[in-house]
Amino acid sequence: MLKVNDLNVYYGMIHAIKGISFNVEEGEIVSLIGANGAGKTTTLHAVSGLIKAASGNSEFMGRNINNMTADKIVRLGLGHVPEGRRVFQELTVDENLDMGAYAVKDKAVIKREYERVMELFPRLKERRKQLAGTLSGGEQQMLAIGRALMSHPKMLLLDEPSMGLAPIIVMDIFDIIQTCNKEGMTILLVEQNAKMALSISDRAYVLETGNIVMEGKASDLLNDDKVKKAYLGG
Question: Taking the domains of the chain in order of start, what are their residue ranges?
Fold first, then answer.
């Protein structure tokens, strides 16, 4: 579904992403794990069109998306939940969800996605008219995911969904990610909580200073001594 080949990204003179290649097949949950500064967020930004890669090729569902603008990539069915949630603080929950549906023309689809978001996130249903800036961190994360789901995506890029959240809320968020996957959503997950990410993923890639240094089945990486020592506190 998503194929990235020889991706290179620079920030000025800094070579942030160094010729990485990876793929995500339809129906999978694939994780990118690694330390702070490894290049995980930059990789997602390059794929979703938020920053321009210096070279390399990204294909989504067989289409080259290298030179597409971010809004056109969303219209193809690639949703992005950014790091730090980035909800519209001065808009209500419902208004944030409306913003997520801006690229969808079919009102029946919008209605269906809205009802699904309310089903997935009953807390948002209770706070529909509340300003997003007044929500808790966990509720804002739920809203960020819900907003992305409103675009009716085929695949979701999730960037650090557990960041700054209490463990019980993290469990809720990861349960929802798995529910979306079981319903047919393909997911590329960037996550510093490597143990949690690997526990729900099919496959994973380990990123270090802009390079992919390991890849494989998530269950194998979860039991790999090097991965345990570096990322799992083992």
Answer: 1-77+154-234, 85-152
Amino acid at 184: G
Contacts of 13 (CB under 8 A, 6+ apart): none
**What CATH number belongs to 1-77+154-234?**
3.40.50.300
Closest CA to 104 of 157, 46, 154: 154
Q: pLDDT digit of tens for each residue in the chain (234 aa)?
A: 999 999 999 999 999 999 999 999 999 999 999 988 899 999 999 999 999 999 999 999 999 998 899 999 999 999 999 887 789 989 999 999 999 998 888 899 999 999 999 999 998 999 999 999 999 988 999 999 999 999 999 999 999 998 888 888 899 989 999 999 999 999 999 998 899 999 999 999 999 999 999 999 999 999 999 888 888 765
User: How far lies 26's CA from each of 129, 156, 195, 224, in Å?
Assistant: 36, 11, 23, 26
- Cα Rg of the chain, angstroms: 17
